[in-house]
From TrEMBL:
One of its GO terms (biological process) is siderophore-iron import into cell. Residues 1-26 form the signal peptide. This is Vitamin B12 transporter BtuB. It comes from Sphingomonas dokdonensis. Its main location: membrane.
Length: 810
C-alpha cells in the first residue's frame, strides 16, 4: 500500500491540474487535415519559416476525435509512423494512429522503437523501464522535451518516459535525428531530440476511460475528464488520472504507478495562446530482477534474481532494493502577437523530482570511516547482529543494512524567443535560462529480523556516529546554471521551393559541487561553454520529392555525481570513486544529407549521416558499497557514419506496411587511459553501437477491426572498449488486435484491444547495463601493465506479455 504522503501529493497535483489554465503549444509537425478532430485558429504563417518545422497546407493540432474513441483516423502512412515531412531536417513523427493501438502501459520510448536507428530494450514485458539508444548514442547524448520543457535528469541526462504522460494523452511524438531545432532548451542532443506533446483539449465536454488487465497480475485504470470550452471564455482543458499495478515477471517484486496529466488552453481570436501543463507521477517498486554478466546469464538465465526470503546477514533480499520516485512537471508554452510581423514565444517551466534507489550490504558495527575520518563504534538502532559475525576483526559483529541513496532535484527555467517575419525571411532571437539543484545523500538503515527497515528514505533511524552525524559514504549538493543565447534566420526562395536555415547558439553550463564528508574533493567547480552553429537546407523538386541536408553541433558536460565528488568505501576510508578532474565536455559535429518522397501510395526517406565526437563520454554503473552508482568515462574521440531509410504505404484497402533500417559504423579513435597507462582501443568499434538495426510492421484497419504485427532486429554490439565481449544480436516481435464497436447510448465508440509483447517469449539479453574497458586481462600499449578483467553487465529482456483493455469515450 502506498504511503499516505504519496496520496496527499496526488491530491495536490489533481488540484493543481484542475485550476490550471493552459494554451496549446504550437505543433511543429503537420499531418493531413483528416488527422485531427479540430484545428487551431491563428496566423499559420508563424511556423512557415521554421527551419526545423515541417509545414504543409494545414496546421493541425491532434485531438481526441469522436470518429474513434481516442483520435484514430487511419490516415497516416506507415500505420501512424510516417507523417508527411517538408522541413530541412531528418524528422519522424508518431501519431495517434499508431499510439492508440498500443497497450496503455506504453511510453514515449517504446512508441519510437520502430523508427530508423532507434534501439529500445526493455527489462519487463510492459516496457515500463526501457533503455534507449539512437545511432549508437545512449540517452545521455539525446535531448528530451515535453511540452516545451527539457524533461529528465539535468545532471545525468537520464530520461524517465513513464513519468511524462499516459499514452492515452500523447498527441504526437517528433524524433529529430542529427540537427535539432535551435530554439529547443537542450544542448546535449548529440544524437537526436525527442519532443512529446499532449493532445489538444477538445472544444466539447466529455470523458474517456480505459480498463486493462494482463499477465503478471497487471491491473491498470485510466480516466480523463474534458471540460470543453468553458462558457465563451476560450478556455478548455482536461485532467486525467491512472493507476497501474503489476508483479515482477522474473523473481519476486511488485511495482505501482500513479499518474496525473492536465492541460488547459486559452485561445484568443488573433491566434495567441496561453497554456499551462502539469503532470505528476509516483512510482514504487521492490525489484527482484538482477543485471547479470554473460557468465551469470549462461548459468541462471532469466532466473538470476534477488532472494525472496530474508535471514540476518543475507543482503541479497529483494525488498532491500527499494525504488521510490515522485516527480512533478509544470510548463506554460505560450505565444503572443506583438505586431503584424513580430511575436513572442515564451515557455516558463518547473521540474521537481525526489526519491530513492536503494541497495544492501553488511556493515561492521565496530566502526568504519566517515569520508576519511574514523568513526569509532557505530550507533545502529534496531540492528540485528549476523550470527557468527563476531570476530577479532569485527568485535561487535556485522549487521545487514539497506543502503539508502536519496536524491532531490529542483529545476526552474524559461525559454523565450522573438519571431520576426520580414518578406521571404524569418528571424528568431532567444534566451534560455535554467537553474538546477541536485542533492544526493547515502545512509544506512538497519534491517530488522523480518527484513524490514524503519525508513526507506533514511531520514530517521539510520546508522550514526557517536556524535549523531548520519553515516554516509557520499553526500553531494550540485548546483547548475545554464545560460543560452541563440539566433537564426530562415528564408524561402525560388517560389518556396528552396528553404534555407542557419543559426548560432552559445551555451554556458556552470556547475558547483560540494560534499559534507571530510576528505578531498569537498568542492569542485566546472564551466563548460561552447559555440553551437548549425545550418540546414531543403529543396523541393515538386510537391512529392525533396532533398535536404544539414550540419549541426552539440555538447554535454560530464554527467553523474561521481564526476564531481568522492564516493568512499566506509570500511576503509578510501575513495572508491574520485573526480577525474577532466571536465572537458563531449562535443560533436554532425552532417546529414537525404531524400524524401511522398507519393499517392508510397512514402520513403533515405539519408546518410556522419558525426565526429571529441571527448566522448560513455555512461555506466558500478556497485559501491551495495549501491548502484553512475559514472561517466571519457574515451577520447569517436567517429560514426551510416545510412538509414524508412518506407511506408498510405493505407490501401486497410493495409499499411512500414519498414525501416540503419547501417552504422562507429569507431574509437584513441587509446583508453587507465591506471596511468593506455589500453590499445584506437581503431576498434565503439561500444553500444550495433552495425545493423531494422524493423518491419504491417497494420490493418478497416475502421472496426484492426491488427498490427511488428518485429525488430538489433545486431551484436560490443560491451567493452577493447571489443573482447559483446551483446549478441537479438530480435523481438509484438502484435496487437482489436475491435471498435458502435456507440451505445452515452458510451461512444467502445474499443477492445489485445496487445502482446515478445510473442515468441524469447529469453535473451536486450541491453548493456554497465560498459567496461576490457572483459579479458589485457596488456597496456607499452607492455608494462596487465590490466585486470572487468565484466560488463546486461539487461534481460522482458518475457511474453499480454494485456487486454476496454476503452470508450463518453
Amino acid at each position: 500500500m502506498l504511503k499516505t504522503r504519496h496520496t496527499a501529493r496526488l491530491l495536490i497535483a489533481t488540484a493543481l491540474g484542475t485550476v490550471a489554465i493552459t494554451p496549446a503549444f504550437a505543433q511543429t509537425t503537420v499531418n493531413t487535415a483528416e488527422q485531427a478532430g479540430s484545428s487551431t485558429p491563428g496566423n499559420t504563417q508563424r511556423e512557415r519559416f521554421d527551419g526545423t518545422a515541417d509545414a504543409g497546407d494545414s496546421d493541425i493540432v491532434v485531438t481526441g476525435s469522436r470518429g474513434s474513441a481516442n483520435g484514430v483516423t487511419n490516415a497516416t502512412p506507415g500505420g501512424g509512423l510516417m507523417s508527411v515531412q517538408t522541413g530541412t531536417k531528418l524528422r519522424s513523427t508518431v501519431t495517434r494512429d499508431y499510439i492508440d493501438v498500443q497497450a496503455g502501459t506504453t511510453n514515449s520510448f517504446t512508441l519510437i522503437r520502430n523508427l530508423p536507428g532507434v534501439v529500445v530494450g526493455s527489462g519487463d514485458p510492459f516496457g515500463s523501464a526501457p533503455n534507449l539508444s539512437i545511432r549508437g548514442l545512449s540517452q545521455t547524448s539525446l535531448g528530451f522535451n515535453f511540452e516545451g520543457a527539457p524533461i529528465g535528469d539535468q545532471l545525468s541526462y537520464s530520461a524517465f518516459p513513464n513519468e511524462w504522460s499516459d499514452s492515452e494523452n500523447i498527441g504526437v511524438l517528433n524524433l529529430t535525428r542529427g540537427s535539432t531545432d535551435i530554439t529547443a532548451p537542450v544542448y546535449n542532443s548529440v544524437g537526436a531530440l525527442l519532443q512529446s506533446e499532449l493532445i489538444s483539449p477538445p472544444m466539447t465536454p466529455g470523458a474517456f476511460a480505459s480498463v486493462g488487465i494482463g499477465n503478471y497480475g497487471l491491473r491498470r485504470y485510466f480516466l480523463r475528464l474534458e471540460t470543453g470550452e468553458i462558457g465563451n471564455s476560450g478556455i478548455r482543458g482536461f485532467v486525467s488520472g491512472s493507476r497501474t499495478y503489476n508483479e515482477a515477471w522474473r523473481g519476486p517484486g511488485v511495482a505501482y504507478r500513479n499518474h496525473i496529466d492536465s492541460k488547459f488552453v486559452k485561445e484568443f481570436a488573433n491566434g495567441d495562446t496561453i497554456s499551462l501543463v502539469a503532470t505528476y507521477n509516483e512510482s514504487n517498486s521492490f525489484a527482484g530482477a538482477r543485471n547479470p554478466t554473460l557468465a551469470q546469464f549462461a548459468e541462471f538465465g532469466k532466473d538470476f534474481s534477488w532472494d525472496d526470503t530474508y535471514a540476518p546477514g543475507r543482503n541479497t533480499y529483494y525488498r532491500l532494493r527499494a525504488n521510490d520516485r515522485q516527480s512533478l512537471s509544470i510548463s506554460a508554452p505560450s505565444t503572443f502577437t506583438l505586431t503584424d510581423s513580430l511575436d513572442a514565444v515564451v515557455t516558463p517551466y518547473y521540474l521537481y523530482t525526489h526519491g530513492v534507489t536503494n541497495g544492501a550490504s553488511n556493515l561492521n558495527l565496530a566502526g568504519g570511516f566517515y569520508g576519511t575520518e574514523p568513526t569509532g563504534p557505530l550507533v545502529a538502532p534496531g540492528a540485528v547482529v549476523t550470527p557468527g559475525s563476531v570476530t577479532a576483526a569485527t568485535p561487535l559483529g556485522t549487521a545487514t543494512m539497506m543502503n539508502v541513496d536519496y536524491y532531490d532535484q529542483k529545476t526552474y527555467g524559461q525559454n523565450s524567443y522573438l519571431r520576426w517575419n520580414v518578406g521571404a525571411a524569418q528571424f528568431r532571437l532567444g534566451y534560455w535560462y535554467s537553474h538546477f539543484v541536485h542533492t544526493e545523500k547515502a545512509a544506512y538503515q538497519p534491517v530488522s529480523v523480518d527484513g524490514t527497515v524503519r525508513d526507506t528514505f533514511g531520514k530517521v533511524g539510520s546508522v550514526t556516529l557517536q556524535d549523531g552525524r548520519i553515516l554516509r559514504n557520499f553526500a553531494a549538493r550540485i548546483e547548475q546554471n545554464v545560460n543560452g543565447v541563440y539566433a537564426d534566420m530562415t528564408s524561402k526562395l525560388a517560389d518556396d521551393k528552396l528553404l534555407i536555415n542557419f543559426g548560432f547558439k552559445f551555451v554556458w553550463v556552470d556547475r558547483t559541487a560540494t560534499s559534507e564528508l571530510p576528505g578531498t574533493a569537498m568542492r569542485t567547480d566546472s564551466l563548460s561553454a561552447k559555440p553551437l552553429p548549425q545550418a540546414s537546407i531543403r529543396y523541393s523538386f515538386d510537391d512529392r520529392n525533396q532533398i535536404f541536408a544539414d550540419i549541426t553541433t552539440a555538447f554535454r558536460a560530464p554527467s553523474a555525481v561521481s564526476s564531481y565528488i568522492n564516493i568512499y568505501n566506509v570500511a576503509t576510508g578510501i575513495a572508491s570513486s574520485t573526480p577525474s578532474g577532466n571536465f572537458n565536455p563531449e562535443y560533436s559535429v554532425g552532417q546529414e544529407i537525404g531524400f524524401r518522397h511522398h507519393g499517392d501510395l508510397v512514402h520513403f526517406t533515405i539519408a546518410a549521416f556522419n558525426y565526429d565526437l571529441t571527448d566522448r563520454l560513455v555512461q555506466g554503473t558500478q556497485i559501491v558499497g551495495g549501491t548502484n552508482v553512475g559514472f561517466a568515462v571519457n574515451v577520447g574521440d569517436q567517429s560514426a557514419r551510416g545510412v538509414e531509410a524508412e518506407i511506408g504505404l498510405v493505407p490501401y484497402k486497410g493495409f499499411s506496411p512500414y519498414v525501416s533500417g540503419q547501417y552504422l559504423k562507429a569507431t574509437t579513435k584513441n587509446n583508453y587511459p587507465t591506471r596511468g597507462v593506455f589500453l590499445p582501443t584506437a581503431g576498434k568499434r565503439a561500444a553500444l553501437s550495433p552495425e545493423w538495426v531494422g524493423s518491419a510492421g504491417l497494420r490493418f484497419d478497416n475502421g472496426r477491426l484492426f491488427a498490427l504485427v511488428e518485429g525488430s532486429y538489433v545486431s551484436s554490439q560490443y560491451s567493452t572498449f577493447m571489443n573482447d565481449q559483446e551483446l549478441p544480436g537479438y530480435g523481438t516481435a509484438n502484435a496487437s488486435l482489436g475491435y471498435r464497436f458502435d456507440t451505445i447510448g452515452f458510451i461512444k465508440k467502445p474499443q477492445f484491444t489485445l496487445n502482446m509483447t515478445n510473442i515468441t517469449d524469447e529469453k535473451q539479453l536486450v541491453g548493456i547495463q554497465g560498459v567496461t574497458s576490457n572483459a579479458l586481462p589485457t596488456r597496456s600499449t607499452d607492455g608494462s601493465t596487465l590490466i585486470p578483467a572487468s565484466n560488463p553487465t546486461y539487461t534481460i529482456g522482458g518475457g511474453f506479455g499480454i494485456t487486454a483493455s476496454l476503452s470508450a469515450a463518453f
